[in-house]
Protein backbone atom coordinates (compact mmCIF):
# COMPACT_ATOMS: atom_id res chain seq x y z
CA UNK A 1 0.00 0.00 0.00
CA UNK A 2 1.46 3.34 -1.06
CA UNK A 3 -0.75 5.14 1.46
CA UNK A 4 -2.06 2.97 4.31
CA UNK A 5 -4.47 5.77 5.24
CA UNK A 6 -5.70 6.38 1.70
CA UNK A 7 -9.15 4.96 2.39
CA UNK A 8 -9.50 7.46 5.25
CA UNK A 9 -8.12 10.57 3.55
CA UNK A 10 -9.43 10.21 -0.01
CA UNK A 11 -13.10 10.34 -0.90
CA UNK A 12 -14.54 8.21 -3.69
CA UNK A 13 -14.57 10.04 -7.01
CA UNK A 14 -15.94 8.40 -10.14
CA UNK A 15 -15.30 8.96 -13.81
CA UNK A 16 -17.16 12.05 -15.00
CA UNK A 17 -20.12 11.74 -17.34
CA UNK A 18 -20.29 14.03 -20.32
CA UNK A 19 -22.89 16.84 -20.03
CA UNK A 20 -26.38 15.53 -20.71
CA UNK A 21 -27.27 18.11 -23.35
CA UNK A 22 -24.09 17.20 -25.23
CA UNK A 23 -24.18 13.43 -25.06
CA UNK A 24 -27.83 12.95 -26.07
CA UNK A 25 -27.00 14.60 -29.41
CA UNK A 26 -24.52 11.89 -30.40
CA UNK A 27 -23.83 8.20 -29.92
CA UNK A 28 -20.41 8.46 -28.30
CA UNK A 29 -19.80 6.88 -24.91
CA UNK A 30 -21.45 8.54 -21.94
CA UNK A 31 -18.32 8.62 -19.78
CA UNK A 32 -15.41 10.99 -20.35
CA UNK A 33 -12.63 8.52 -19.67
CA UNK A 34 -10.00 11.23 -20.09
CA UNK A 35 -11.14 12.56 -16.72
CA UNK A 36 -9.91 9.34 -15.10
CA UNK A 37 -6.16 9.84 -15.42
CA UNK A 38 -5.85 12.82 -13.06
CA UNK A 39 -7.75 11.03 -10.28
CA UNK A 40 -7.20 7.32 -10.82
CA UNK A 41 -3.97 6.97 -8.83
CA UNK A 42 -5.53 8.47 -5.72
CA UNK A 43 -8.67 6.40 -6.19
CA UNK A 44 -6.62 3.19 -6.50
CA UNK A 45 -4.90 4.29 -3.30
CA UNK A 46 -8.18 3.87 -1.40
CA UNK A 47 -7.72 0.09 -1.74
CA UNK A 48 -6.86 -1.33 1.70
CA UNK A 49 -5.01 -4.42 0.34
CA UNK A 50 -7.16 -6.52 2.66
CA UNK A 51 -5.85 -9.69 4.23
CA UNK A 52 -8.93 -11.41 2.79
CA UNK A 53 -9.85 -9.50 -0.40
CA UNK A 54 -13.56 -10.21 -0.80
CA UNK A 55 -13.47 -8.42 -4.15
CA UNK A 56 -11.88 -11.62 -5.49
CA UNK A 57 -15.00 -13.55 -4.50
CA UNK A 58 -17.26 -10.86 -5.90
CA UNK A 59 -15.56 -11.10 -9.31
CA UNK A 60 -16.30 -14.31 -11.25
CA UNK A 61 -12.98 -13.91 -13.05
CA UNK A 62 -11.05 -13.76 -9.79
CA UNK A 63 -9.40 -10.51 -10.89
CA UNK A 64 -6.26 -9.65 -8.90
CA UNK A 65 -7.75 -6.34 -7.85
CA UNK A 66 -5.52 -5.28 -4.92
CA UNK A 67 -2.42 -6.07 -6.98
CA UNK A 68 -3.30 -3.87 -9.93
CA UNK A 69 -4.67 -1.17 -7.66
CA UNK A 70 -1.27 -0.98 -6.00
CA UNK A 71 0.57 -0.90 -9.34
CA UNK A 72 -1.64 1.93 -10.61
CA UNK A 73 -0.78 4.00 -7.53
CA UNK A 74 2.88 3.85 -8.55
CA UNK A 75 2.08 4.53 -12.20
CA UNK A 76 3.34 1.11 -13.36
CA UNK A 77 0.79 0.69 -16.15
CA UNK A 78 2.67 -2.14 -17.86
CA UNK A 79 2.72 -4.37 -14.78
CA UNK A 80 -0.87 -3.42 -13.99
CA UNK A 81 -1.89 -4.43 -17.52
CA UNK A 82 -0.12 -7.77 -17.17
CA UNK A 83 -1.90 -8.50 -13.88
CA UNK A 84 -5.29 -7.47 -15.28
CA UNK A 85 -4.97 -9.48 -18.49
CA UNK A 86 -3.80 -12.51 -16.52
CA UNK A 87 -7.42 -13.11 -15.52
CA UNK A 88 -9.50 -11.14 -18.04
CA UNK A 89 -9.26 -11.32 -21.83
CA UNK A 90 -11.39 -8.23 -22.43
CA UNK A 91 -11.12 -5.74 -19.53
CA UNK A 92 -12.18 -2.82 -21.73
CA UNK A 93 -15.52 -4.64 -22.17
CA UNK A 94 -16.10 -5.44 -18.49
CA UNK A 95 -14.76 -2.04 -17.39
CA UNK A 96 -17.57 -0.45 -19.39
CA UNK A 97 -20.41 -2.97 -19.14
CA UNK A 98 -20.07 -4.98 -15.93
CA UNK A 99 -22.24 -3.85 -12.96
CA UNK A 100 -19.15 -4.37 -10.75
CA UNK A 101 -20.13 -7.01 -8.18
CA UNK A 102 -16.51 -6.63 -7.01
CA UNK A 103 -17.35 -3.18 -5.65
CA UNK A 104 -20.30 -4.34 -3.56
CA UNK A 105 -17.98 -7.05 -2.17
CA UNK A 106 -15.22 -4.50 -1.37
CA UNK A 107 -14.44 -4.59 2.36
CA UNK A 108 -14.47 -0.79 2.41
CA UNK A 109 -18.13 -0.96 1.29
CA UNK A 110 -19.15 -2.28 4.72
CA UNK A 111 -19.45 1.29 5.97
CA UNK A 112 -18.00 3.56 3.24
CA UNK A 113 -18.26 4.03 -0.53
CA UNK A 114 -16.35 1.21 -2.22
CA UNK A 115 -13.11 1.56 -4.16
CA UNK A 116 -13.77 2.57 -7.78
CA UNK A 117 -12.59 -0.82 -9.02
CA UNK A 118 -14.45 -0.61 -12.32
CA UNK A 119 -12.94 2.79 -13.14
CA UNK A 120 -9.44 1.56 -12.33
CA UNK A 121 -10.00 -1.49 -14.55
CA UNK A 122 -11.08 0.49 -17.61
CA UNK A 123 -8.23 2.96 -17.10
CA UNK A 124 -5.68 0.12 -17.10
CA UNK A 125 -7.27 -1.46 -20.19
CA UNK A 126 -7.28 1.81 -22.14
CA UNK A 127 -3.72 2.64 -21.11
CA UNK A 128 -2.60 -0.83 -22.18
CA UNK A 129 -3.80 -0.11 -25.71
CA UNK A 130 -2.44 3.43 -25.79
CA UNK A 131 1.00 2.37 -24.53
CA UNK A 132 1.28 -0.76 -26.70
CA UNK A 133 1.04 -3.33 -23.94
CA UNK A 134 -1.83 -5.29 -25.56
CA UNK A 135 0.29 -6.99 -28.20
CA UNK A 136 -0.91 -10.22 -29.84
CA UNK A 137 0.22 -13.40 -28.10
CA UNK A 138 0.48 -16.09 -30.81
CA UNK A 139 1.25 -19.64 -29.64
CA UNK A 140 4.84 -20.81 -29.40
CA UNK A 141 3.90 -24.14 -30.97
CA UNK A 142 0.86 -25.73 -32.62
CA UNK A 143 -0.87 -28.82 -31.26
CA UNK A 144 -2.52 -30.01 -34.52
CA UNK A 145 -5.84 -30.08 -32.68
CA UNK A 146 -8.81 -28.18 -34.12
CA UNK A 147 -11.76 -26.54 -32.36
CA UNK A 148 -14.91 -24.93 -33.80
CA UNK A 149 -16.60 -22.24 -31.70
CA UNK A 150 -20.23 -21.42 -32.55
CA UNK A 151 -20.98 -17.85 -31.51
CA UNK A 152 -18.79 -14.76 -31.21
CA UNK A 153 -20.13 -13.21 -28.02
CA UNK A 154 -17.89 -12.73 -24.96
CA UNK A 155 -17.93 -16.42 -23.97
CA UNK A 156 -17.11 -17.65 -27.48
CA UNK A 157 -14.39 -15.06 -28.03
CA UNK A 158 -12.75 -15.68 -24.64
CA UNK A 159 -12.80 -19.43 -25.20
CA UNK A 160 -11.39 -19.03 -28.72
CA UNK A 161 -8.58 -16.71 -27.63
CA UNK A 162 -7.48 -19.00 -24.82
CA UNK A 163 -7.46 -22.07 -27.07
CA UNK A 164 -5.61 -20.23 -29.85
CA UNK A 165 -2.92 -18.99 -27.48
CA UNK A 166 -2.28 -22.51 -26.19
CA UNK A 167 -1.69 -23.75 -29.75
CA UNK A 168 -4.97 -25.17 -31.08
CA UNK A 169 -6.39 -24.16 -34.45
CA UNK A 170 -9.67 -22.37 -33.72
CA UNK A 171 -12.37 -21.13 -36.06
CA UNK A 172 -15.29 -19.04 -34.81
CA UNK A 173 -18.63 -19.21 -36.64
CA UNK A 174 -21.02 -16.24 -36.42
CA UNK A 175 -24.47 -16.01 -37.97
CA UNK A 176 -24.49 -12.20 -38.24
CA UNK A 177 -22.58 -10.19 -40.80
CA UNK A 178 -20.19 -8.86 -38.16
CA UNK A 179 -18.54 -10.40 -35.12
CA UNK A 180 -19.33 -9.67 -31.50
CA UNK A 181 -22.77 -11.15 -30.79
CA UNK A 182 -24.82 -9.02 -28.41
CA UNK A 183 -21.74 -6.89 -27.76
CA UNK A 184 -22.04 -5.72 -31.36
CA UNK A 185 -25.76 -5.45 -31.94
CA UNK A 186 -27.32 -5.55 -28.47
CA UNK A 187 -25.19 -3.05 -26.53
CA UNK A 188 -25.79 0.56 -27.63
CA UNK A 189 -22.89 2.64 -28.86
CA UNK A 190 -23.22 5.10 -25.98
CA UNK A 191 -22.36 2.31 -23.53
CA UNK A 192 -19.46 0.90 -25.54
CA UNK A 193 -18.20 2.15 -28.88
CA UNK A 194 -17.65 -0.73 -31.25
CA UNK A 195 -14.05 0.11 -32.10
CA UNK A 196 -13.18 -1.62 -28.81
CA UNK A 197 -14.52 -4.89 -30.26
CA UNK A 198 -12.79 -4.39 -33.61
CA UNK A 199 -9.45 -3.80 -31.90
CA UNK A 200 -9.68 -7.06 -29.94
CA UNK A 201 -10.73 -8.97 -33.05
CA UNK A 202 -7.64 -7.72 -34.89
CA UNK A 203 -5.53 -8.90 -31.96
CA UNK A 204 -7.17 -12.34 -32.15
CA UNK A 205 -6.64 -12.56 -35.90
CA UNK A 206 -2.97 -11.72 -35.42
CA UNK A 207 -2.74 -14.53 -32.88
CA UNK A 208 -4.20 -17.00 -35.37
CA UNK A 209 -7.91 -17.27 -34.57
CA UNK A 210 -10.00 -17.79 -37.72
CA UNK A 211 -13.48 -16.36 -38.26
CA UNK A 212 -16.45 -17.02 -40.53
CA UNK A 213 -19.43 -14.69 -40.52
CA UNK A 214 -22.92 -15.03 -42.01
CA UNK A 215 -22.92 -18.77 -41.29
CA UNK A 216 -25.66 -20.03 -39.01
CA UNK A 217 -24.65 -23.47 -37.85
CA UNK A 218 -27.74 -25.66 -37.97
CA UNK A 219 -29.19 -23.92 -41.03
CA UNK A 220 -26.37 -22.89 -43.37
CA UNK A 221 -23.98 -25.55 -42.11
CA UNK A 222 -24.94 -28.89 -40.61
CA UNK A 223 -23.58 -29.12 -37.07
CA UNK A 224 -22.99 -32.84 -37.40
CA UNK A 225 -20.66 -32.18 -40.35
CA UNK A 226 -18.86 -29.59 -38.27
CA UNK A 227 -18.34 -32.18 -35.55
CA UNK A 228 -16.81 -34.57 -38.07
CA UNK A 229 -14.36 -31.90 -39.23
CA UNK A 230 -13.12 -30.69 -35.83
CA UNK A 231 -11.72 -32.36 -32.73
CA UNK A 232 -14.08 -30.39 -30.51
CA UNK A 233 -17.06 -28.09 -30.94
CA UNK A 234 -18.03 -25.29 -28.54
CA UNK A 235 -21.64 -24.08 -28.46
CA UNK A 236 -21.54 -20.45 -27.27
CA UNK A 237 -24.70 -19.11 -28.86
CA UNK A 238 -25.93 -17.22 -25.80
CA UNK A 239 -29.42 -17.11 -24.31
CA UNK A 240 -31.16 -15.07 -26.98
CA UNK A 241 -34.67 -16.56 -26.93
CA UNK A 242 -36.58 -13.55 -25.64
CA UNK A 243 -39.47 -13.66 -23.18
CA UNK A 244 -42.85 -12.72 -24.62
CA UNK A 245 -45.70 -10.60 -23.27
CA UNK A 246 -48.89 -12.58 -24.00
CA UNK A 247 -51.51 -9.88 -23.45
CA UNK A 248 -54.37 -8.65 -25.68
CA UNK A 249 -53.12 -6.36 -28.44
CA UNK A 250 -49.62 -7.82 -28.56
CA UNK A 251 -49.88 -8.24 -32.34
CA UNK A 252 -50.52 -4.54 -33.01
CA UNK A 253 -48.08 -2.62 -35.19
CA UNK A 254 -45.63 -0.60 -33.15
CA UNK A 255 -45.13 -3.26 -30.45
CA UNK A 256 -41.62 -4.68 -30.77
CA UNK A 257 -39.18 -6.79 -28.84
CA UNK A 258 -36.17 -4.87 -27.52
CA UNK A 259 -33.85 -7.16 -29.46
CA UNK A 260 -35.68 -6.30 -32.65
CA UNK A 261 -35.27 -2.61 -31.93
CA UNK A 262 -31.72 -2.32 -30.53
CA UNK A 263 -29.86 -4.17 -33.32
CA UNK A 264 -31.46 -1.90 -35.93
CA UNK A 265 -30.40 1.18 -33.95
CA UNK A 266 -26.85 -0.15 -33.72
CA UNK A 267 -26.77 -0.87 -37.44
CA UNK A 268 -27.96 2.66 -38.14
CA UNK A 269 -25.10 3.98 -35.99
CA UNK A 270 -22.78 1.89 -38.16
CA UNK A 271 -24.04 3.71 -41.25
CA UNK A 272 -26.71 1.31 -42.47
CA UNK A 273 -30.19 2.52 -43.49
CA UNK A 274 -28.61 5.91 -44.29
CA UNK A 275 -28.18 6.38 -40.56
CA UNK A 276 -31.92 6.18 -39.78
CA UNK A 277 -33.24 3.08 -38.02
CA UNK A 278 -36.34 1.46 -39.59
CA UNK A 279 -37.86 1.47 -36.09
CA UNK A 280 -37.37 4.97 -34.74
CA UNK A 281 -38.70 6.66 -31.61
CA UNK A 282 -38.51 10.11 -33.15
CA UNK A 283 -41.62 12.13 -32.24
CA UNK A 284 -43.28 9.15 -30.56
CA UNK A 285 -44.75 8.38 -27.15
CA UNK A 286 -42.71 5.37 -26.04
CA UNK A 287 -43.40 2.80 -23.34
CA UNK A 288 -40.65 0.36 -22.34
CA UNK A 289 -41.91 -2.79 -20.63
CA UNK A 290 -39.16 -4.13 -18.37
CA UNK A 291 -36.98 -2.54 -15.73
CA UNK A 292 -33.61 -4.21 -16.35
CA UNK A 293 -30.46 -3.28 -18.23
CA UNK A 294 -31.99 -3.99 -21.63
CA UNK A 295 -34.82 -1.60 -20.79
CA UNK A 296 -32.26 1.06 -19.85
CA UNK A 297 -30.47 0.44 -23.17
CA UNK A 298 -33.76 1.06 -24.96
CA UNK A 299 -34.30 4.20 -22.87
CA UNK A 300 -30.98 5.76 -23.82
CA UNK A 301 -31.61 4.88 -27.46
CA UNK A 302 -35.11 6.36 -27.71
CA UNK A 303 -33.85 9.50 -25.98
CA UNK A 304 -31.18 9.97 -28.65
CA UNK A 305 -33.69 9.27 -31.41
CA UNK A 306 -35.89 12.13 -30.17
CA UNK A 307 -38.86 10.48 -28.45
CA UNK A 308 -41.61 12.88 -27.39
CA UNK A 309 -42.15 11.08 -24.09
CA UNK A 310 -41.12 7.80 -22.52
CA UNK A 311 -42.30 5.65 -19.61
CA UNK A 312 -40.52 2.56 -18.34
CA UNK A 313 -42.56 -0.09 -16.51
CA UNK A 314 -41.02 -2.29 -13.83
CA UNK A 315 -43.06 -5.04 -12.21
CA UNK A 316 -40.79 -4.92 -9.15
CA UNK A 317 -41.45 -2.49 -6.28
CA UNK A 318 -39.42 0.68 -5.87
CA UNK A 319 -36.10 -0.45 -4.34
CA UNK A 320 -34.73 1.06 -1.15
CA UNK A 321 -31.79 3.44 -1.25
CA UNK A 322 -29.82 1.24 1.20
CA UNK A 323 -29.19 -2.48 1.47
CA UNK A 324 -32.07 -4.60 2.69
CA UNK A 325 -31.44 -6.74 5.74
CA UNK A 326 -31.71 -9.92 3.69
CA UNK A 327 -28.99 -8.68 1.29
CA UNK A 328 -26.05 -8.03 3.64
CA UNK A 329 -22.51 -7.24 2.52
CA UNK A 330 -20.90 -8.69 0.38
CA UNK A 331 -24.03 -9.78 -1.56
CA UNK A 332 -24.89 -7.67 -4.61
CA UNK A 333 -27.93 -5.70 -3.33
CA UNK A 334 -31.03 -4.62 -5.18
CA UNK A 335 -31.05 -0.90 -4.40
CA UNK A 336 -32.40 2.16 -6.17
CA UNK A 337 -29.98 3.06 -8.97
CA UNK A 338 -30.10 5.80 -11.58
CA UNK A 339 -28.29 4.81 -14.77
CA UNK A 340 -26.97 7.41 -17.22
CA UNK A 341 -30.01 6.70 -19.42
CA UNK A 342 -32.41 7.40 -16.54
CA UNK A 343 -30.46 10.53 -15.67
CA UNK A 344 -30.82 11.76 -19.26
CA UNK A 345 -34.53 11.02 -19.49
CA UNK A 346 -35.24 12.69 -16.17
CA UNK A 347 -33.30 15.84 -17.09
CA UNK A 348 -34.77 16.18 -20.58
CA UNK A 349 -38.24 15.61 -19.20
CA UNK A 350 -37.69 18.46 -16.76
CA UNK A 351 -36.26 20.78 -19.40
CA UNK A 352 -38.78 20.16 -22.16
CA UNK A 353 -41.94 19.71 -20.12
CA UNK A 354 -43.08 17.08 -22.60
CA UNK A 355 -44.98 15.17 -19.92
CA UNK A 356 -47.37 18.04 -19.35
CA UNK A 357 -48.03 18.34 -23.07
CA UNK A 358 -48.52 14.59 -23.48
CA UNK A 359 -50.91 14.35 -20.54
CA UNK A 360 -48.86 11.64 -18.81
CA UNK A 361 -48.13 12.32 -15.12
CA UNK A 362 -44.57 11.98 -13.89
CA UNK A 363 -44.57 8.39 -12.65
CA UNK A 364 -41.53 8.01 -10.42
CA UNK A 365 -39.71 9.79 -7.58
CA UNK A 366 -37.95 13.06 -8.38
CA UNK A 367 -38.97 12.99 -12.02
CA UNK A 368 -37.89 9.38 -12.62
CA UNK A 369 -39.66 8.08 -15.72
CA UNK A 370 -39.97 4.58 -14.23
CA UNK A 371 -43.25 3.20 -12.92
CA UNK A 372 -42.66 0.52 -10.29
CA UNK A 373 -45.02 -2.27 -9.23
CA UNK A 374 -46.68 -2.03 -12.64
CA UNK A 375 -47.81 -4.72 -15.06
CA UNK A 376 -49.08 -4.42 -18.62
CA UNK A 377 -52.75 -5.34 -18.79
CA UNK A 378 -53.43 -4.89 -22.51
CA UNK A 379 -52.63 -2.78 -25.57
CA UNK A 380 -55.12 -0.59 -27.38
CA UNK A 381 -54.91 0.09 -31.11
CA UNK A 382 -56.29 2.59 -33.58
CA UNK A 383 -58.41 1.93 -36.67
CA UNK A 384 -55.27 1.11 -38.69
CA UNK A 385 -54.09 -1.60 -36.34
CA UNK A 386 -51.30 0.49 -34.79
CA UNK A 387 -50.81 0.69 -31.03
CA UNK A 388 -52.10 3.92 -29.49
CA UNK A 389 -52.15 3.23 -25.76
CA UNK A 390 -51.12 0.80 -23.05
CA UNK A 391 -53.30 -0.19 -20.11
CA UNK A 392 -51.26 -0.92 -17.00
CA UNK A 393 -52.30 -2.14 -13.59
CA UNK A 394 -50.57 -1.92 -10.23
CA UNK A 395 -49.40 -5.16 -8.66
CA UNK A 396 -48.92 -6.22 -5.07
CA UNK A 397 -45.19 -6.21 -4.28
CA UNK A 398 -44.93 -9.78 -2.99
CA UNK A 399 -47.44 -11.84 -4.95
CA UNK A 400 -47.39 -9.65 -8.09
CA UNK A 401 -51.17 -10.00 -8.27
CA UNK A 402 -53.10 -7.12 -9.90
CA UNK A 403 -54.50 -4.58 -7.50
CA UNK A 404 -58.12 -3.65 -8.08
CA UNK A 405 -58.84 -0.06 -9.06
CA UNK A 406 -55.26 0.67 -10.22
CA UNK A 407 -55.68 0.47 -14.00
CA UNK A 408 -54.21 3.41 -15.90
CA UNK A 409 -54.01 4.40 -19.55
CA UNK A 410 -50.71 5.61 -21.01
CA UNK A 411 -50.40 7.01 -24.56
CA UNK A 412 -48.06 4.84 -26.61
CA UNK A 413 -47.36 4.64 -30.31
CA UNK A 414 -44.13 2.67 -29.81
CA UNK A 415 -43.83 -0.13 -27.23
CA UNK A 416 -40.57 -1.98 -26.55
CA UNK A 417 -40.68 -5.28 -24.66
CA UNK A 418 -37.54 -5.83 -22.59
CA UNK A 419 -38.40 -8.75 -20.31
CA UNK A 420 -35.16 -10.68 -20.64
CA UNK A 421 -34.40 -14.10 -22.09
CA UNK A 422 -35.21 -17.68 -21.17
CA UNK A 423 -32.45 -19.67 -22.85
CA UNK A 424 -30.82 -20.37 -26.22
CA UNK A 425 -32.78 -20.41 -29.44
CA UNK A 426 -33.62 -23.94 -30.56
CA UNK A 427 -35.25 -23.50 -33.96
CA UNK A 428 -32.10 -23.55 -36.13
CA UNK A 429 -31.54 -27.32 -36.02
CA UNK A 430 -28.30 -26.93 -34.06
CA UNK A 431 -29.58 -28.67 -30.93
CA UNK A 432 -31.01 -31.66 -32.83
CA UNK A 433 -27.93 -32.06 -35.02
CA UNK A 434 -25.59 -32.12 -32.01
CA UNK A 435 -27.93 -34.06 -29.74
CA UNK A 436 -28.21 -31.25 -27.18
CA UNK A 437 -30.85 -31.40 -24.45
CA UNK A 438 -32.51 -28.64 -22.44
CA UNK A 439 -32.62 -28.59 -18.65
CA UNK A 440 -35.49 -27.32 -16.48
CA UNK A 441 -34.27 -23.74 -16.96
CA UNK A 442 -34.31 -24.12 -20.77
CA UNK A 443 -30.51 -24.08 -21.05
CA UNK A 444 -28.39 -26.68 -22.79
CA UNK A 445 -27.45 -29.52 -20.44
CA UNK A 446 -23.73 -29.81 -19.67
CA UNK A 447 -21.64 -31.49 -16.99
CA UNK A 448 -19.10 -30.00 -14.59
CA UNK A 449 -16.50 -30.04 -17.39
CA UNK A 450 -18.81 -28.02 -19.69
CA UNK A 451 -19.34 -31.09 -21.89
CA UNK A 452 -22.78 -31.79 -23.36
CA UNK A 453 -21.60 -35.02 -24.99
CA UNK A 454 -18.36 -36.42 -26.37
CA UNK A 455 -16.40 -33.61 -28.10
CA UNK A 456 -19.26 -31.10 -27.70
CA UNK A 457 -18.99 -28.38 -25.06
CA UNK A 458 -21.40 -25.63 -24.02
CA UNK A 459 -20.13 -22.26 -22.81
CA UNK A 460 -21.59 -19.00 -21.55
CA UNK A 461 -25.27 -18.11 -21.31
CA UNK A 462 -26.27 -21.06 -23.48
CA UNK A 463 -25.40 -23.31 -20.53
CA UNK A 464 -25.86 -21.08 -17.49
CA UNK A 465 -28.74 -18.85 -18.58
CA UNK A 466 -28.98 -15.10 -19.00
CA UNK A 467 -26.19 -13.55 -16.99
CA UNK A 468 -23.47 -10.88 -16.92
CA UNK A 469 -20.63 -10.28 -19.37
CA UNK A 470 -18.11 -11.03 -16.63
CA UNK A 471 -19.68 -14.45 -16.11
CA UNK A 472 -19.63 -15.11 -19.87
CA UNK A 473 -15.89 -14.37 -20.09
CA UNK A 474 -15.18 -16.48 -17.00
CA UNK A 475 -17.26 -19.31 -18.47
CA UNK A 476 -15.39 -19.07 -21.78
CA UNK A 477 -12.01 -19.21 -20.09
CA UNK A 478 -13.04 -22.18 -17.94
CA UNK A 479 -14.47 -23.99 -20.98
CA UNK A 480 -11.19 -23.48 -22.83
CA UNK A 481 -9.27 -25.07 -19.95
CA UNK A 482 -11.66 -28.04 -19.95
CA UNK A 483 -11.31 -28.51 -23.72
CA UNK A 484 -7.52 -28.27 -23.60
CA UNK A 485 -7.46 -30.90 -20.87
CA UNK A 486 -9.80 -33.09 -22.93
CA UNK A 487 -7.65 -32.79 -26.06
CA UNK A 488 -4.20 -32.96 -24.47
CA UNK A 489 -4.73 -34.86 -21.21
CA UNK A 490 -3.56 -31.88 -19.16
CA UNK A 491 -3.71 -28.10 -19.31
CA UNK A 492 -1.90 -25.00 -18.12
CA UNK A 493 -4.85 -22.73 -18.89
CA UNK A 494 -6.46 -21.15 -15.81
CA UNK A 495 -10.03 -22.06 -14.91
CA UNK A 496 -11.42 -19.05 -13.01
CA UNK A 497 -15.05 -20.02 -12.66
CA UNK A 498 -16.47 -21.19 -9.36
CA UNK A 499 -17.53 -24.80 -8.89
CA UNK A 500 -21.17 -23.76 -8.73
CA UNK A 501 -22.92 -23.15 -12.04
CA UNK A 502 -24.80 -20.08 -10.87
CA UNK A 503 -23.56 -16.68 -9.69
CA UNK A 504 -23.12 -16.20 -5.95
CA UNK A 505 -22.97 -12.41 -5.89
CA UNK A 506 -25.37 -11.53 -8.70
What's the arrangement of secondary structure elements?
Layout: H1 6-9, H2 20-23, H3 37-44, H4 54-58, H5 65-73, H6 77-85, H7 91-97, H8 101-104, H9 117-130, E1 146-150, H10 154-166, E2 169-173, H11 182-185, H12 195-207, E3 210-212, H13 223-229, E4 232-235, E5 255-257, H14 258-269, E6 285-289, H15 293-305, E7 309-314, H16 340-352, H17 354-358, E8 370-372, E9 374-381, E10 387-394, E11 408-411, E12 414-417, H18 430-434, E13 451-453, E14 456-458, H19 461-464, H20 469-488
Parallel strand pairs: 1-2, 1-4, 2-3, 4-14, 5-12, 6-7, 6-12, 7-8
Antiparallel strand pairs: 9-10, 10-11, 13-14
What distinguishing features does this structure have?
506 residues; Fumarate Reductase Iron-sulfur Protein, Chain B, domain 2; FAD/NAD(P)-binding domain; 6-stranded mixed β-sheet; 5-stranded parallel β-sheet; globular
Any overview of this molecule?
This protein is α/β, with parallel strands linked by helices. It folds into three domains: 6-130, Orthogonal Bundle (Fumarate Reductase Iron-sulfur Protein, Chain B, domain 2), CATH 1.10.1060.10; 146-241 and 428-488, FAD/NAD(P)-binding domain (3-Layer(bba) Sandwich); 255-417, FAD/NAD(P)-binding domain, CATH 3.50.50.60. Helix content is 34%, strand content 13%. The chain is built from 20 helices and 14 strands. The chain has helices spanning 6-9, 20-23, 37-44, 54-58, 65-73, 77-85, 91-97, 101-104, 117-130, 154-166, 182-185, 195-207, 223-229, 258-269, 293-305, 340-352, 354-358, 430-434, 461-464, 469-488; strands spanning 146-150, 169-173, 210-212, 232-235, 255-257, 285-289, 309-314, 370-372, 374-381, 387-394, 408-411, 414-417, 451-453, 456-458. A six-stranded mixed β-sheet has the order 3-2-1-4-14-13, sandwiched between helices. The chain has a five-stranded parallel β-sheet with strand order 5-12-6-7-8. A three-stranded antiparallel β-sheet has the order 9-10-11, with no helix packed on it. Helix 10 links the parallel strand 1 and strand 2 (169-173). Helix 10 (154-166) runs parallel beside helix 20. The longest helix is centred in the C-terminal third of the chain and has 20 residues, at 469-488. The two termini are 29 Å apart. 46% of the residues are buried.
Amino acid sequence: MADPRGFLTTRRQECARRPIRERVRDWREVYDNQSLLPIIGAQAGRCMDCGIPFCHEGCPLGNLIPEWNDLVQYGDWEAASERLHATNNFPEFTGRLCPAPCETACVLAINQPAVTIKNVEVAIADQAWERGYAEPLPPERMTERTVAVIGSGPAGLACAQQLTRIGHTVRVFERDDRLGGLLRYGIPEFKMEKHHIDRRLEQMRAEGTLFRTQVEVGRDLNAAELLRSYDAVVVAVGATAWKELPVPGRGLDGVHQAMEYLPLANRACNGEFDGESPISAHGRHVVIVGGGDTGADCLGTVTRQGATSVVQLDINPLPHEDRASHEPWPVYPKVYRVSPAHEEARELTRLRGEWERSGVPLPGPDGDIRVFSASTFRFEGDENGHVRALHLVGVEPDQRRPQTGTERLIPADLVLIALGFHGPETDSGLADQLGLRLDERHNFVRDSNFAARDRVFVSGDAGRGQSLIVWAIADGRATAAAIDRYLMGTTTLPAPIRSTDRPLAV
